[in-house]
Amino acid sequence: MDNSGQKILCSRNMKEGYLLLCSGIVIFLTIALFVMSGRSLAQGQMHKAPVVVSRVVQMDVRQPVRMVGTVFPLRESIVACAIEGLVVEFPVKKGDYVEKGQELAKLRTTTLEIQLKGAKADEHLARIKYQRAKELYEGKTISHQELDEFETKLVAQEAVVEAAEDNIGKCTVTAPFDGRITEESTEVGQWLKKGDSVISMLQLDYVKIRVPVPEKYIQDLNVGDESEVRFPALGSITRTGHIVHIVPQADKRARTFPVFIRIDNKDEVIKSGMFAEATFEMGALLSATMILKEGIVRRGGGEFIYLAVDGKVTEVPVQTGIAHKNLIQIIGDVKPGIDVIVRGNERVRNAQDIQVTGRMDPLTIDD
Predict the structure, then answer these.
(1) Is residue 144 in a domain?
(2) Contact assessment for residue 68 and residue 276, using Cβ atoms and an 8 Å cutoff
(3) Helix or strand or coil: residue 65?
(4) Angle at 231 between CA 227 and CA 237, to 5 degrees
């Protein structure tokens, strides 16, 4: 092959190598661009705040009627002594929490135990006489009437023993229910007469709110109806209770009927005698825009909700109104059917990207 042919072949090889190199570069750049795009997309997803949303709904609710009431303990009792005697033990003090059956005081039992010992001896003797009489009756030595007399004496003596044991048992005064002691009425060394007070106590793990309801509202209330009760002395504390009793007799002067609401108070935050404000849903029907209570965010003295619109947060100022079970009325530029953020709303800001991870139905969730 001459020199010109070699030059042509060399030039051709260089072009093919150049093309292969360019193709490799293009493939590398394509792969790199794809990887970087995927990584950017993943990073974008990671920066989206996860939230749970719920629908804004329109529904008819009754306007609330608020009334004032007073807190009463679920139970209260003056625990009295059932027998006279000298107090030898008094292990409790004012303010103590006691459980049902716990010892409150103990009286001296020495004399009663001596009486019991004598009564048991007489019972033993009466039993022996009855067994002998039974044998005599079976041998037809005595009549059935005479056997009955011995049996009657035995039964009477058994009753004496039972009475002595009962009196000894009465010397230990115990709590009639779980509760807290509010007053001490005795001390060690004091002689108590039958009926004398030992302590006063009340049960506060549940409380009753006594609300005088005007006669124009009483027909709208029923046992079991729910009421939200606020306690001004406790700041923002609000508890939900249910009506347990409606007294059918009105106060003759005020024309109000006592209605009692029972409320859980296991932390004993609510105290007997406190002022309370009870709210009943028994006013006229009102069409209201409602959301789950969790959707309200309070900040800087204002109230806001965060809507989920096209994958972004939209902050809307609102005012709250009627509360109904787990829902609350909102007044503002919000239309029913749109999604409001109810979980994660404390961490988002206006216009932030979000990712919806769950949904709550406002019409099926309870408190």
Answers:
(1) yes
(2) yes
(3) strand
(4) 85
- Residue 52 is assigned to a structural domain of this protein: no
DSSP SS3 for 293: helix
The answer to whether 142 touches 133, Cβ cutoff 8 Å, is yes
The enclosing domain of 143 has a CATH number of: 1.10.287.470
Of 67, 72, 73, 69, give the one whose Cα is nearest residue 276: 69
- List the structure tokens of 40: 């950017």
Residues 277 and 274: their CA atoms lie apart, in Å, by: 10
Q: 163 is in which domain, residue-wise?
A: 109-170
Q: Side chain identity at 179, as an amino acid letter?
A: G
**In terms of DSSP H, where are the helices of the chain?**
3-46, 110-138, 144-170, 215-218
Could you tell me if 105 and 85 are in contact, meaning their C-beta atoms sit under 8 angstroms apart?
Answer: no
151 located within any domain: yes
Nearest to 107 by CA among 170, 39, 181, 32: 170
Q: How many domains does the chain have?
A: 1
Block residue for tokens 């309070």: 298
Residue 273 in contact with residue 305, Cβ under 8 Å?
Answer: no
Mean pLDDT for the stretch of residues 232-246: 92
Least confidently predicted of 22-31, 115-124, 225-234 = 22-31
Mean model confidence pLDDT for the chain: 89
The model carries a pTM of: 0.63
- Lowest-confidence range among 39-53, 93-107, 129-143, 170-184? 39-53
Q: Are strands 256-264 and 49-55 parallel, antiparallel or unpaired?
A: unpaired
Read off the pLDDT of residues 57-85 as tens digits, 9 standing for 90 and up.
Answer: 999 988 889 999 999 999 999 999 999 99
Between 4 and 191, residue with greater pLDDT? 191
Instruction: Report d(CA 347, CA 300) in Å as an integer.
Output: 16
Q: Is a pLDDT exceeding 80 seen at residue 293?
A: yes
Residue 125 lies in a domain: yes
* Parallel, antiparallel or unpaired: strands 275-292 and 327-331: antiparallel
